[in-house]
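lol ok so funny story. i was supposed to be doing the assay writeup but got distracted and ended up predicting the structure for this chain instead. priorities right. anyway since i did it might as well share w the group, maybe its usefull for someone
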Amino acid sequence: GTQRLGFLVKKALVGAAPRVTVVGTPVEQGASLHVLCPDGVSYTTGLLNDRPPLLMDVQIEGPNGLSWPLTIINNHLKSMIDVDSTADADVNYACFNNDAGGNYQPGGEGRRNRAKRQQNAEFLAELVQQLQTADPNRAIVLVGDFNAYEFNDGYADLMSTIKGEPAANDETVVPDDGADLVDPDLVLLTELVPQQQRYSYTFDGHAQTIDQILVNEPVLGATVGEPRMEFGRVNADFTSADALDTGNAFANSDHDPALAFLDIAAFRDADLELTVTPAAANADVGDTLSYVFSLENQGPDEAVDARVELTLPAGVLFDSLTAPAGWMCSTPAVGDSGAVVCTAAALWASNQSANFSVSVTLGAQAGGTTVTAPIFASARSNDPILPNQGSFVTIVAALPDLIFSNGFEP
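and the output, tada:
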């Protein structure tokens, strides 16, 4: 094809660094590949990717001086033109004029368009999977004109193939398209847009969405809350008369730009302060101890997914927990050792502390030892002052030797 994809990169400074820094050089993916023929062995002369996906790695700078690495794949898949054609395919895709057994079958042009679109989607899904497998923590965003709806239209279900939730093979007219190629699945942000706003393009008077944005799990794991997607209303709602009007910028394209809003947790600074009240310095087996601690956010921002974990070592047996409202906690069973973990989706900067108290009993296994219960706090937001950790330390007296009634030791 004659079209090529590109990126506009925002270079405005955030502090002393550009908002976005391109890492390396953007690279076209699969530019030399061809379409697999119906026989499952040979390939067409015509290319698979007329507009090859363009992959770019960037570092996005936050206002607190931290950066976030991101991989962006720009896409423009084969259009829906002639997906239902009954004509013969041209010489570059002539193999689609025959069935899998090599026998002539009318409608080769429709078959080649349907197959090419499906193979576009499968190539992209396999590319994402290769990247995720090589680095499971790699944050990946897919953007562009996918020329595909967010649902199964009967001819194909390309977006479901790309995100890793393919339609069953018998639910589209494309053969052998039910393979799941992506794990973990991607999230199609278009599906989060309110239904009445879910369109980016108007064709023959029909509003539809063919411009999509997908993200993988590391992107979701880096963000606060749920990502948001919107469409800039500058084209689809306007007419050809607007396109000819030099007094405005409307209808300069037939697509509305798709925008994703990602609130990156690491770009928030929240200084957590963990305060540990010392436990009894000395104790006996059977005694009850209280492990009292508090967590405060010194700001300036909200602490995202605040977490505090206390580990009860062998011989230190859980009795009960008192925690603030709004915190979700997990504990060992009563009488067991293990981890006490409490989390809160947000801990706001304030003069208020989140106060906790864990009651434990010293078991026989603790006798004659110094028991240490470590504790630490963390959040997904950036903590400029570390560490946030401490411990409860108690020396436990040894159990006396057992004496039988006859005066002899056991």
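The radius of gyration is 30 Å. Residues 19 and 314 are 50 Å apart (CA to CA).
back to the writeup now i swear
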